[in-house]
Amino acid sequence: MNTNEPIRDARQLGLPKMLILGLQHMFAMFGATVLVPILVQSYGLPLSIQTTLFFAGIGTLFFHVCTKLKVPAFLGSSFAYLGGFQAMAKLDAGRYAAMEAGEKLQYACGGIVVAGLLYVVLAAVIKAVGVKKVMRFLPPVVTGPMIILIGLSLAPSAVTNASSCWWLAILSIAVIVVANIWGRGMIKIIPILLGVVIPYLVALAANAMGATAVNAAGELVPLMDFSAVTKAQLLGFQPFVTEFSGSVAKFDLTAILVMAPIAIAAMMEHIGDMSAISATVGENFIENPGLHRTLIGDGIATSLAGLFGGPANTTYGENTGVLVLSRVYDPKVVRLAALYAVVLSFSPAFAALVNSIPTAIIGGVSFILYGMISAIGVRNVVENRVDFTNSRNLIIAAVILVCGLGFSGGITFAVGEAHITLTALAIAAIAGIALNAVLPGKDYEFGTDVTEGRSADMGRY
Asked: Where are the bilayer-spanning segments (predicted)?
């Protein structure tokens, strides 16, 4: 097998290797996916890790059905909605005064249901007017910098996680680099999995010898903590209802106004991710199976998760990074990862065990994956031949990058009693789309002059 050539049908590798590749995708998404409920729990809302894992898997499988089994994307829990969860946790006026945290989470989930339905509305618009007319507002001069920002916006979390134990993070990075550059055969296409497993085994030995890490408060703590593992049951159902009072999702205008507008950012991230996956795989998924299908898959998966107490879903850049490194583009491998997530969501003990992975290892892996996302954005701009000698294009890209990096805390404004936060990515997307629409000289046409061998040609200037 020539490992320099991408693999589009993983069956040629055999079932055992396919199962391992699926495991690699599961590990790539796991840290970030479970981090969302962990962070939401720190706000005081009882979002379940098991429920999050279950709907990440179910949502991914539903997405694949909607996209005719063509798009190798994994749907994990979205970080874009963290600001909304935090705002809901702090609400203490009107009906939210003295409300139990579990019930606040129900209303937050109701807002997520509505947010997911907004995807369906955009998909209907695309289906009605055609993807070419919509994509004229989202050319590579907009989506390219947005992809770059997705990676760069995640970069601080990679550094923060790695800083808890730098030597372990550097070991993780080194294993990935060595496996990907000098590895042969199967070693070359599972660098992320090796970058987790090998440092984890080393960490076990170091922990036994008394190695320490630095926590968020700057205190020295044991390198690994197995207290949650010892307390967890081997098997257990997802707490769809048990942690809540009454039904799961509840609906209220205030909560909807807090959560639903975040869909603007999430939809732009979705389009950027579809562009990134297209650029990686070398197929134009925005045109076939179509952006309307990918949006419907993502949106309904998000609404379904919110309806039963899970966080919003989003197409995961971490798994796009795995595609880049492994060069195995078969969607069946991603569906295996989704099945793993569903099965493992029934095991509180396994969730706790995987969550015992030192944050430094997650940080080291993230160094590579997040950087890969930004590099794909650069590639998207280069391969689509965006002319940056043109002042118009230069201005659009410049404003997008400054908005995305400058508004680190986003912009918060009041709507009635609720405060709505637009994230930096949402601000950057709105600014880029608006500038592209109003500045003269727009000469981009989606889907024209596609040249064989150029990955994900989204058109030509």
From this structure: 18-39, 45-64, 71-89, 105-125, 137-159, 165-182, 189-214, 248-268, 333-354, 360-382, 394-414, 420-439
